[in-house]
């Protein structure tokens, strides 16, 4: 684990430089401990470079994200990092990255939506737990105005949860925040709650002859999330088709009158049914096979945290509180968290190294607040054995707790030692005892295991030693080549970049290269390589050769205005291709009829990585002939 750092602006700059600079960053978000960066293309050396920076605990590449684990100071680093990158939250071109599987994209979305306000929910949950404790000690407090004020304060973030989701989801899906908030505020309107209550009592209320359901949306997750997702497409559609003079008025108007009724009629009932169905599936397992449920959550929850995919479970947990006012998942989750704290305590007691003890105390302290990433990456996973002991102890503690019918009765944003009181309920007095006993086992058992079996070797030190070995000079091996030839991808007439009627390309600011006036609408692979970027409007493609030449091929000038209509892509991001393979077809006549140039710049965007980029002589290009050569 790297030493602590207070120079967060410098750390942000160092991270940005290591991942490839501003031009390689598509988006950035943060959670409780991680800076989550979406990159246009991965850099093999970035992980090691960032991991070695002072203040960085480790780096995890997962879910299409480059996740920099920093710990409790991630907010300061994020603020400075966000100020360094040119990621426009309102720009259509900066849509969320579409890389990775559907599951990865869902989890990434959940992280982006919930991470910014998770501490608000955690604070409200702790306040609810304190109120439970106070009313247990002083029953008369329940009847006071003081209790009532604190009670509605603690419930407010959950009551108006759709509005929080509107704010963060609108940033993630790149849509107007104020339209999203207005639409989601309508979902939690008291007027709709009254209408839903009348429907529940048997009254039939319709909208345009379509029956409305009794679903209410306070504390809901998926209905506002899907509302904002669909809104992002509707808003972009309208912005392209409504004149800019009336756009500021009519786009919000149409969005509201379409999206709110659509959610009440279809989106809300369907997504609510889905969330409740998943929650009921878990509840069936917890009620009919509690030992199995406890074993799975107690042993594997921290494994899920390692990969940063734990946000995906949030809708299910919130659905349980919304439907039943209780949830057993967070009871077992708390025990799993405490088990990792116990493993850290075991290492602190066993270790002789002052540095290891110091790191353990720091990491263990954040664990008290339900944040275990520093404990995992800084101590337990670093030594391997303590992490395993923690998982075993979490499972044993959760299994013992399962015999006491454990539940949480107030949502805990960050389950941990401070939220154990959320398990207190007069109607289920064994619940809190089960959680307390399970937690006691979870914290004591790993301490005992570490004292008996030790905590293993420092894998971080081993990795450092391996790097030093790898860095030892080796005999020079002659390379097979130190240059890469880029073939012509299009038939046509060759032009110098200076002849291109576009200042950005003509100046060479984007890199060296040439341009071609196409004679036919076919684009072929200029070398063996892979696709690293495809413009949303299909008019430009970024490719990389197997030896590292990065090429931008921009078909036409200002063709972004055509919204992809004349272009047919035959490849997608991540695809590999061979020299000469057909990558794209485009309708030249359709482009020309719109009064747009078809001149196609071909740019080596990483010109700086080469000592020289030599342009071949000639005026005519034919697919496959040498166009230019990049020399290392």
UniProtKB/TrEMBL annotation:
Residues 463-485 are annotated as: Disordered. Residues 463-473 have a biased composition (Basic and acidic residues). Coiled coil: none annotated. The chain crosses the membrane at residues 113-141, 147-169, 176-195, 215-234, 246-271, 291-319, 331-349, 361-380, 387-410, 430-453. It is an enzyme of class 2 (transferase). It is found in: Cell membrane. Gene3D superfamilies: Glucose Permease (Domain IIA), Glucose permease domain IIB. This is Beta-glucoside-specific PTS transporter subunit IIABC. The keyword Transmembrane helix applies. It comes from the Bacteria. Its EC number is 2.7.1.-. One of its GO terms (molecular function) is transferase activity. Residues 108-469 form the PTS EIIC type-1 domain. The active site is at 31 (phosphocysteine intermediate). Residues 502-606 form the PTS EIIA type-1 domain. It is a multi-pass membrane protein. Keywords: Cell membrane, Kinase, Membrane, Phosphotransferase system, Sugar transport, Transferase, Transmembrane, Transmembrane helix, Transport. Residues 9-91 form the PTS EIIB type-1 domain. InterPro entries: Dup_hybrid_motif (IPR011055), Glu_permease_IIB (IPR036878), PTrfase_EIIB_Cys (IPR018113), PTS_EIIA_1_perm (IPR001127), PTS_EIIC (IPR003352), PTS_EIIC_1 (IPR013013), PTS_IIABC_b_glu (IPR011297), PTS_IIB_1 (IPR001996).
């Amino acid at each position: 684990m790297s030493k602590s750092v207070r120079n967060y602006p410098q750390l942000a700059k160092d991270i940005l430089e290591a991942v490839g600079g501003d031009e390689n960053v598509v988006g950035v978000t943060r959670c409780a401990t991680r800076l989550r960066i979406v990159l246009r293309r991965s850099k093999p050396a970035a992980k090691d470079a960032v991991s070695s920076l002072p203040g960085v605990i480790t780096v995890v590449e997962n879910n299409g994200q480059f996740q920099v684990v920093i710990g409790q100071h991630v907010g300061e680093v994020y603020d400075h990092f966000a100020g360094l990158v040119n990621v426009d939250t309102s720009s259509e071109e900066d849509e969320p990255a579409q890389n990775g599987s559907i599951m990865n994209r869902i989890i990434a979305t959940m992280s982006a939506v919930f991470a910014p306000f998770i501490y608000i929910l955690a604070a409200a949950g702790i306040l609810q737990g304190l109120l439970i404790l106070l009313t247990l000690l002083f029953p008369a407090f329940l009847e006071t105005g003081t209790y009532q004020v604190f009670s509605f304060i603690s419930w407010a973030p959950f009551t108006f949860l759709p509005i929080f989701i509107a704010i963060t989801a609108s940033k993630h899906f790149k849509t107007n925040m104020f339209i999203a908030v207005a639409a989601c505020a309508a979902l939690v309107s008291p007027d709709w709650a009254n209408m839903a209550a009348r429907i529940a009592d048997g009254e039939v209320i319709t909208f345009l002859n379509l029956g409305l359901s009794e679903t209410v949306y306070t504390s809901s997750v998926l209905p506002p999330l899907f509302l904002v997702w669909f809104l992002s497409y509707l808003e972009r559609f309208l912005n392209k088709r409504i004149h800019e003079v009336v756009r500021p008025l009519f786009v919000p108007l149409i969005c509201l009158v379409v999206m709110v009724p659509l959610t009440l009629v279809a989106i809300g009932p369907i997504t609510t049914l889905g969330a409740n169905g998943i929650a009921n599936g878990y509840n069936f397992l917890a009620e009919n096979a509690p030992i199995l449920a406890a074993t799975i959550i107690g042993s594997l929850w921290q494994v899920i945290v390692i990969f940063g995919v734990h946000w995906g479970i949030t809708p299910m947990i919130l659905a349980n509180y919304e439907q039943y006012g209780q949830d057993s998942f967070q009871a077992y989750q708390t025990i799993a968290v405490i088990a990792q704290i116990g493993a850290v305590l075991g290492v602190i007691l066993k270790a002789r190294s002052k540095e290891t003890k110091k790191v353990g105390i720091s990491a263990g302290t954040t664990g008290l607040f339900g944040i275990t990433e520093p404990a995992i990456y800084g101590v337990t996973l670093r030594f391997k054995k303590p992490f395993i002991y923690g998982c075993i102890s979490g499972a044993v503690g959760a299994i013992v707790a399962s015999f006491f019918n454990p539940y949480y009765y107030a949502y805990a944003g960050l389950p941990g030692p401070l939220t154990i009181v959320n398990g207190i309920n007069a109607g289920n007095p064994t619940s809190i005892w089960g959680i307390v006993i399970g937690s006691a086992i979870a914290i004591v058992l790993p301490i005992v295991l570490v004292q008996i079996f030790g905590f293993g070797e420092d894998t971080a030190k081993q990795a450092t030693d391996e790097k030093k070995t790898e860095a030892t000079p080796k005999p020079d091996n002659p390379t097979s080549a130190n240059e890469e030839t880029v073939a012509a991808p299009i038939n046509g007439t060759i032009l110098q970049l200076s002849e291109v009627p576009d200042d950005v390309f003509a100046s060479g600011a984007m890199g060296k290269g040439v341009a071609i006036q196409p004679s036919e609408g076919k684009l072929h692979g200029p070398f063996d390589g892979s696709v690293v970027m495809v413009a949303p409007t299909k008019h430009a493609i970024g490719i990389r050769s197997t030896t590292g030449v990065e090429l931008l091929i921009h078909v036409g000038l200002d063709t972004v205005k055509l919204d992809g209509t004349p272009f047919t892509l035959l490849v997608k991001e991540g695809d590999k291709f061979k020299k000469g393979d057909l990558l794209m077809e485009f309708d030249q006549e359709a482009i020309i009829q719109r009064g747009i140039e078809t001149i196609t710049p071909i740019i080596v965007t990483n010109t700086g990585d080469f000592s020289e980029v030599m342009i071949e002589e000639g005026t005519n290009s034919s697919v496959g002939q040498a166009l230019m050569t990049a020399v290392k």
